[in-house]
Write the structure tokens for this entry.
Amino acid sequence: MTEPTMTELPPPRSPDADTYSLALVCLGNICRSPMAHVVLEHRLAEAGLADRVRVASSGTGDWHIGEPMDPRAASALEGRGFDPTLHRAQHFDGDWFSAHDAILVMDDNNVRDVSRLASTPADRERVLMFRAFDPAAGQDVELPDPWYGDQRGFEAVLVIIERTTDELVRRLAAR
Ligand code: 4NP
């Protein structure tokens, strides 16, 4: 199952809210979603949107709760000038739906696991693929999991994350 590319961000849950709230979700919350979290917060701050968009990340698995991100992810981020040190892994549960306007997930398994915890169809519609916003994505909009590979896999994933984040920030700024 894949989303078509260039999906729209869902509207805010509350029309008069002055912040938009994004959750980034992967399996362990130590590789992909924390990298995306750090890059997105950094770029939002550069765009002057730090007060208008809130970002959080979590994993559908609970094995790494409280841990910092994978050292390979941290190293890739540092190499590009981002600060990976503040991250601590969190676990996704159904309460995340009520706290977020959009839930951006990294692969099809994440879509399944997150959607299973949605209590309404409207909540389920807030679950989108992160790479649905990647202007260079093809038909496959999964973000590969670099956990099983080497450092180069993390660098490659970071390129995709940076490109996708630029598009997300452009859309958030236009709101
Ligand atoms: P992530 O990668 O979902 O991008 O954080 C993984 C991290 C840990 C595990 C799997 C994937 N794990 O099996 O512990």
The chain has six helices and four strands. Residues 26-32, 59, 63, 145, 147 surround 4-nitrophenyl phosphate (CB under 6 Å).
